[in-house]
Amino acid sequence: MAGSRTDSIVIERPRDRVAEIVMNRPDALNAVDARQATLIADACAELAADDRLSVVILSTALDRAFCVGADLKERNQLTNDDLAAQRPASRRAYNSVLGLPMPTIAAVEGFALGGGCELALSCDLIIASDSAAFGLPEVGVGVIPGGGGTQLLSRRVGLNRAADLIFSTRRVSADEAYAIGLADRRAAAGAARTAAGELAAEIAAKSPVALRNAKRALRTGFDLPMAEALEVEDACWHDTAMSADRAEGVAAFVEKRKPEWPRAKG
């Protein structure tokens, strides 16, 4: 598996139609400084432009941590003006993960704290290994979650549970994360990336066009009134149903064979 970067962010291609963004900054447990934020955003931009991709995994090369959030050693040196100037790059990093057009899976090992928890929340699905620990400690250091945490967590676990976790800053084990819906699947310690790869392969076998349009319908329609949301779904259905993928999918079903998706062959 050849990475397209040799830095603290590496893109790997473990399977056909699957890419993996691997965070590998061991000296800081994958903390997000200005440089790391830029690398995450650039990696996502590269993958978003790849029409052949069906799934993206966000993972860690470390056993101890998925990502421990913002690099507070860096932040301690910043003036208010410096922090404000850095904010757009930080927002771009989190928004770039959230905005990926294909399904995304976070494979969480170890600590997923602060911005690390928010990176996981920005993915469509979260696999938590038995070693995983989630938390949003920001109010304890004089800030609030700023990578989408206040909005994404409440949409996953409900407003009151999100308030409990954000106000108290307490950490959540893999068991509790799964119980409250913060995590979608479980894996043994050390096996989150393997489990994510298996799930990604299962998803990637489906229609690339349908996967992207299903994600668009889910994400866009979620906060809309039902009538508007159904219009979004109808537009996404039309785009999919009129595509070559629909013709191939139906033909493959009738002929009792695996589909050969046109985009995937491109």
UniProtKB/TrEMBL annotation:
EC class (word): lyase
What GO biological process terms does the UniProt entry carry, in alphabetical order?
Answer: fatty acid beta-oxidation
| Catalytic activity, as annotated | a (3S)-3-hydroxyacyl-CoA = a (2E)-enoyl-CoA + H2O; a 4-saturated-(3S)-3-hydroxyacyl-CoA = a (3E)-enoyl-CoA + H2O
Domain of life here?
Bacteria
Gene Ontology molecular-function annotations: enoyl-CoA hydratase activity
Residues crossing the lipid bilayer are none
Q: Name the Enzyme Commission number(s) assigned to this protein.
A: 4.2.1.17
Which UniProt keyword terms apply here?
A: Lipid metabolism, Lyase
What InterPro entries has UniProt attached to this entry? ClpP/crotonase-like_dom_sf, Enoyl-CoA_hyd/isom_CS, Enoyl-CoA_hydra/iso, Enoyl-CoA_hydra_C
Instruction: Specify the signal sequence span.
Output: none
**Entry's SUPFAM superfamilies?**
ClpP/crotonase
Write down a Pfam family by its short name.
ECH_1
Q: Which family does it belong to?
A: Belongs to the enoyl-CoA hydratase/isomerase family.
What this protein is called in its record is: enoyl-CoA hydratase
Q: Which organism is it from?
A: Microlunatus elymi
